[in-house]
Amino acid sequence: MVKSHEGRLPSLQTDRELVLGLIEACHEAIVIHADDLCELDRAIGDGDHGTNMRRGCEAVYLDRERLGSLPLPQAIETIGMTLVMSVGGASGPLYGTLLIEIGRRLGTRDEADFATILGEAIDAVARRGRALAGDKTLLDVLYPVQTEMARQSALINIAKRAEVSARLTAEMKAMRGRASFLGDRSIGHVDPGASSCALLTTAICRYLREYRPA
């Protein structure tokens, strides 16, 4: 049974429709907003975040039929590996680490609380990027999202928290990545990684709200 409104993932049984639906939702969100992400990145980075994220999502999308045949934990881990290989810059390793760690934990903890698994995966991303909350990165969306999931918030509230958290990075000084070289000049600009993370979170929440297993 799907309990996505309670902050839990659907059953860990193979679910082709769910995997394909999530891939399509995330792919669409990034493709539509790729230029916007590049514009954000031009202000404090290389200007290619949208291009890189679109490349990664397209690689996953092209492999969707095979991914849809896998159990959910294995599909998530494989998607993470694909992102590591196909997304340029720091985003590939960070998003890849997140999904690889989620997939591996889901594969060994049947019916586990997804909020706990997500928290552990986010901590792994923080270690990989040597970053903390408040450093103006995607962590500044991931940690608030995990907090909402731990509270078993409704999906619409999780999505809203992600969107608000991304906007709040404009008030932060970048402490990691290329943007950190700007120092105080990075203040006033939304972090592109936080923005893409919010877009993906919103797309996932929207799909799960509408998802009904056959």
How does this model look, in words?
With 214 residues, the protein is mainly alpha-helical. The chain has a single domain (4-210), classed as DhaL domain (Serine Threonine Protein Phosphatase 5, Tetratricopeptide repeat), CATH 1.25.40.340. It contains nine helices and no strands. The chain has helices at 16-44, 49-62, 64-68, 72-86, 91-108, 114-129, 139-150, 155-168, 192-210. The longest helix has 29 residues, at 16-44. The chain is globular.
Which secondary structure elements does this structure contain, and how are they paired or packed?
Elements: H1 16-44, H2 49-62, H3 64-68, H4 72-86, H5 91-108, H6 114-129, H7 139-150, H8 155-168, H9 192-210
Short structural description:
The chain is an all-alpha fold.
Features:
214 residues, Serine Threonine Protein Phosphatase 5, Tetratricopeptide repeat, 0% strand, globular, disordered N terminus
Choose one word for the global shape: globular
Total DSSP E strands: 0
Number of domains: 1
Global Rg:
16 Å
Strand fraction equals under 5%
The CATH architecture can be named as Alpha Horseshoe
Mean pLDDT: 91
